[in-house]
């Protein structure tokens, strides 16, 4: 666990450096997803290759969290660490939102609401061919306002996709403010329950709890898809942006950057 | 006489037998799009996502990412219309081999009326990078096109119709992406037609021949990419250039022909189609007559 926590620390620094270098990008929702992403790529996922690519699949439905995605992919060697600073740059290979052209990325994303359908398709293909492995999908909480998510939730249930585990990064904030002040998708857990999912609520910054929860669900295989709702803090790790929706998609000033990096050491 | 949607459904069954990787998706219109024939034969490989076109396209993409050969169907207005952005950002941007087979395109939907008559799908689909746009004219063209795209490793939009169309082809023709098919060699005019309007143009050709006016008809079954060479060559040899389609004249096949000719062989083009309007209810033939997408209209243009 300690090792994983060290990786999280490193990833958080990478995120701030990347967004600072690009002078644009999404820090808040990247920082809130760090523990989950590290748990997935450094502990949970089977990253071995078969004829359909990696055995376990991952879809970053909240594609604006590309900084955390790229940083984690770099920590696993899919991307050269030096390349991280080319994020969002014209001659770079790291699009503002994930592109399938980037090594390690399973599918392009960024237009919200679409990831769960894609993950369903992957899980269905595994079922059709009786193939092993899980499909993981990370959604934002604001993203649940997209109708397609609920179309996909019905499909996941209908087709008994118990090889699908999806996550909600429940930080309570979206671009225009608190979920409750925009158009609230609450109650999130009850909605997914009603749609036929196994639902678990956990602390999204407790990496041990994340790993244990995923493993417990992997053992279930009860013909139901699963969702793990991760209670998180937007901007986690940088005290002066934590819980502030205004830092959803903007870079830090030079002063803020230095202050943030000091906090992250 | 057979509708292109029916030919599509029948072809899927044959392909399903030949290739285990084929998966067919529908959005609660399987009995109308004719994918229910595939369903009755291969129930496990037919996915019905319900009335949810955005999810239809996303699920199709996930299956394609796993190596499945995916055909996804619903009415054109819902597929190219409602799920446009899913098609753009998920299917086309990822360059996935999803075959979007949209039925009930154009005015010949008939009685269901304006809300269900998709007159803008060619325009919407052909501006998306990576997308191939095909529009077969009869049963045989549909069968061959649906077969030919099975192993094409990228997105394809196929425009299919609800109404029966007369058979035009014998089965000896080839339907390759980016090609077209010539009918006749008259030089008084060339008519570029696509889908349902090809047989209308052929009827006009026949009647004009009796008046000793000879035209050529080109079946533009591949709207993107276009068979530029044939288009330019036919237009060069003809006195008049006419296009006909059951689609808005803005952005459709006629527009695409104009784009080619304006660059390579500037020439006046008469476009027959829907003049930037919505359709209306009525029998398919009646609606086509009301909007003047007829052989009489072609003849009028040729004889002008």
Describe the structure.
The complex is a heterodimer of chains A (265) and B (304). Chain A is built from 9 helices and 9 strands. With 265 residues, chain A is of the alpha/beta class. Chain A has one domain: Thiamin diphosphate (ThDP)-binding fold, Pyr/PP domains (Rossmann fold, 3-Layer(aba) Sandwich), CATH 3.40.50. In chain A, strands 3-4-5-9-8 form a 5-stranded parallel β-sheet, with helices on both faces. A two-stranded antiparallel ribbon of chain A has the order 1-2. In chain A, helix 6 links the parallel strand 4 and strand 5. Chain B has 2 domains: 164 residues, Thiamin diphosphate (ThDP)-binding fold, Pyr/PP domains (Rossmann fold), CATH 3.40.50; 123 residues, Rossmann fold. The two termini of chain B are 32 Å apart. By secondary structure, chain B is an alpha/beta fold. The model of chain B has no long low-confidence stretch (mean pLDDT 98). The interface between A and B is medium-sized, with 34 and 28 residues.
List the helices and strands and how they pair.
The complex is a heterodimer of chains A (265) and B (304).
Chain A: H1 2-22, H2 28-31, H3 34-44, E1 49-50, E2 53-54, E3 57-60, H4 66-75, H5 115-129, E4 135-140, H6 147-158, E5 164-170, E6 173-174, E7 177-178, H7 188-194, E8 198-203, H8 207-220, E9 226-231, H9 254-264
Parallel strand pairs in A: 3-4, 4-5, 5-9, 8-9
Antiparallel strand pairs in A: 1-2, 6-7
Helix pairs in contact in A: 1-3, 1-4, 1-9, 3-4, 3-8, 5-6
Chain B: E1 2-3, H1 4-18, E2 22-26, H2 30-33, H3 36-41, E3 46-48, H4 53-65, E4 69-75, H5 76-82, H6 84-92, E5 98-103, H7 121-126, E6 132-134, H8 139-148, E7 156-159, E8 164-165, E9 181-183, E10 189-193, H9 197-210, E11 215-219, E12 222-224, H10 228-237, E13 241-248, H11 253-264, E14 269-274, H12 284-290, H13 295-303
Parallel strand pairs in B: 2-3, 2-4, 4-5, 5-7, 6-7, 10-11, 10-13, 13-14
Antiparallel strand pairs in B: 1-8, 6-12, 9-11
Helix pairs in contact in B: 1-8, 4-6, 9-13, 10-11
